Structures are given as C-alpha cells and as structure tokens.
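Summary for the funding panel

The consortium committed to producing paired sequence-structure records for every protein in the target list. Below we show the first two records in order, beginning with the earlier of the two.
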Amino acid sequence: MSKDAILNTIRRNLRRGPLPADQAAMLDGRMATHPRHLIPARSRLPRPEQVALFVRNLEKEFATVERVPEPAAVPAAVADYLAAQNLPSRFAMAPHEELDAIPWDDRPMLEVERRRAAASDQVGVQHGYAGVAETGTLMLPSGPGRPTTLNLLPDTEIVVLRATRVVGAYEEAWDLLRAEHRDALTGGHMPRNVMFVTGPSRSADIEQTLELGAHGPRRLHVVLVDDDPAALPMAEAAPVPPRTAEPGGRPAPGD
C-alpha cells in the first residue's frame, strides 16, 4: 500500500478531507527546512574535546574503544580485541567499500566473510556512518554496504568509524545523511532503516537487574580511525619543538 493510500485511509476514518491549502503549505515548509531543536551545550566543543567526549560517553555506556592512527592499523586492532576476548577469528563483515579497502590480508589468521549476519555469527564487523558526541551514539543507516542484521544478530559487534564522522549533536548527523543519501526509488533522503546504537544491548526489565545482550549484541567495540588532524589530542596534534641552546650550552633566548 502506498503512502498516499495509507494517509487517505486515515483521513477517511477521521472523517476529514484534504488539508486546507494554508495548513498543507505550512507542513511542506517545515519538512523542507528541517528546523533545529535545542542543541545541548555539552557537545559544542573544540574538535579534540568533542571526539574525547564521544569516547567517554561510549565507555560510560559499556562499550569499548580503541583509537588507531590509520585504516591499515584496523586488522591488528580487531585481531588483538578478538584474542583478548577469547573470541573466534572468523567474522561477518559489512560489504562496504571503505572496509574492503582495509588490508585485512595483513592478518592472515582473520577469517573475513563479506556478507550480512546470520544468527550463528559470534562476531560482526560493521561500517560506522557517524558518531554523536553528546551521547556516545552510533548512527547506522541501512544499505547494501551496511546490512542491518550486523547490528542485531552477532553476540559481539565491532564498528569501524572514522573520526571525521564524529559530530556534536544528532541534528548534525541527520545533516550528513540528508546531504549524502538519496533514495533512487522515492527521491527522498531516508534509507529504509536508521539505527541509533548507544552501547551494547541491555535491559533491566526483570527485577531491575541489568542484563547485557538482551535484544542484540552483548559487546560493542568501536575502532576509531584518527583521520581528522583537528581531532587529535593536543599533545599529538602540536608536538613541542625541541629546546635549542647557544654555543657553550647556554639556553637560547626565550627558553
């Protein structure tokens, strides 16, 4: 059933005809302009602090994070994490072009299977679309290169995310999606599904006892690729120049 058919059925059951022209224009304008809601001040930070906030909030929500300097370091980070958690080296991986470009063959013990997840998978590697610093949340829209099953079925989910994709607030993540995604069928901006993931799956419904893995992955591990020079910690982004000295060992002027 089409969207128009659904809406017309709702209007008919409400005994309401088409919207008046002024109301329709007002709604169309709101949909076109994407008005901003209140944005928390805690995410309005310089880039190094913003990415650090994202990491802190991830860890606060029971996720783990490893920062690596480049994509070539991802296989070693994944292999070390799997070994530390006593997990198998075989995993399902999203068939995304950025993940395909990573040199997984550098770690021949890793068994990479590029596909959607199955219920029997213990580990899945997903491509991270964006991260939201204010809550430590991952934005994971569905697509051929980012199967939704990888967010739900494996007991352990590993997400590879670039630091350039960390934003302060949810509104900025939606801005990215609107700017970069266009559905070929409808011409709209939204994919079939957008998941926001904040930490591993958990529930305290039964006797207020926290249980991890209640409705999805028991573990969430993020490999954050530091591809944004502006987001590096200050000590790494601007190393202190060595002290100089005049002949005879006396400190140079200004030292």
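The next record, for a separate protein in the list, is shown here:
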Amino acid sequence: MSDRERSSGNGRLLMGISWAVLLLGLWLWGRQVTDVPPGMSARTTGDVAAVGRPLEVELPHSAEPLGEALPQRVDIPAMGVQAPVVARGLDGHGAVQPPPFDQPGVVGWYAAGVKPGAAGTALFVGHVDTETRPAIFYKLSTLRPGDAVRVVRDDGRVAEFTVDDVQVLARDRFDAQQAYGPRKPGRAELRMITCGGSFDRDSGGYTANVVVNAYLTGSGP
C-alpha cells in the first residue's frame, strides 16, 4: 500500500478505503469461505502482468506444515528483499492495520490469523511506495511461479515457500474468496498483498491489489 494515500488531507479515511478489501477478505476468511480451484487467476489490469501459473513451470511438492512460531523476517531473493516482520491487527474501523507509514521497509503480518509455516494461509501486507520512493513490496508483481520466499521464525527455523500464483485483482471486482482462500486445503501457504494497478488521484488510492500466493516446500535452520 502507498503513503500517497495521505496526500489528500484525508489520510485516515483513505487508508480505510484502501484496506477495505482486506477487511472483507478477512471476514469471509474467518467464516471459512475458502474453497478456491487450484490455478485460478484473474485478468491483468495494466499493472506488471499477473502471470498466474504458466504450464511450463514445474513446481516442487508441498512440505508438511510446521508447528506454530512467530515470523521475524522475510527474505525474497528475486526482489532483493530482506525485511523485518511486525504483527498487525485491526484498527478502530475494523480494517487491517498496514505497517506504519514511517516504516516503508517493514512487512506486516496479520497476527490474528495463521502463523507462517503452519497449516492454513498466513497473510503478509506491505506498502508499494511512499510519496518519494519505492517501499518494501514495490516489486511484488514481478515475482513468478518458482521464486523462493523464506520466513525466519522465532523457533530458529526458516520456513521455505515457493511462489505458485501471481494475480492482479481490480478493486471494483475484488473476489475475497479468490484472494484469501487456500489454494489447496491442508497446505501451509503464504499470501502477500500490496497495491497495484494505477494510482487514482481522485480517490487517493490504487485501482487494484497485487496478490501473490506461495506454499511451504521445505524448512531449515
């Protein structure tokens, strides 16, 4: 998500609008509206192309879910990202709190949800840019199936995920079930979300969300 959303002078309102899709998705997610056909992808929206799951990409088998442990850092080599992870909850309007605006290099984890590496879908959110420079998830839409995502946990283990789906979902056609539901029940999955599409100066927000899914394929010390 972007710090540009503060620029209209109605930052609190615009932040609520920008993250409303997360609130809707989490509400449905908590009510177990979760069945999503594997490989389901939305059309691209003019952001860097969402590639879905190309048939020529051979992905590894999923690994057994790990026990629960708190995330401390996320490493995404293809993006050149090594970032701390901070727990986030819901704000007074019931929307997910994004990472603090003055910490654009931090990734937020929805702490009331699944812990990364455990069975289910863990949720990471991050800003795409600030008013002056790119933020931590600026290159999220450039990820491709097969790319690695590593989450360092407080039990001393590293949960190793593999990207299997990249989508750009227009906000006016946002499908919470598609965005938040697990791709395959029983797997440990990681969903990473930021703003996408184009910046709409009238509303003070972006026109789409980039949604990246990854699943657990290994672990290490």
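Regarding this second record: Residues 121 and 165 are 14 Å apart (CA to CA). The first strand starts at residue 71 and ends at 76.
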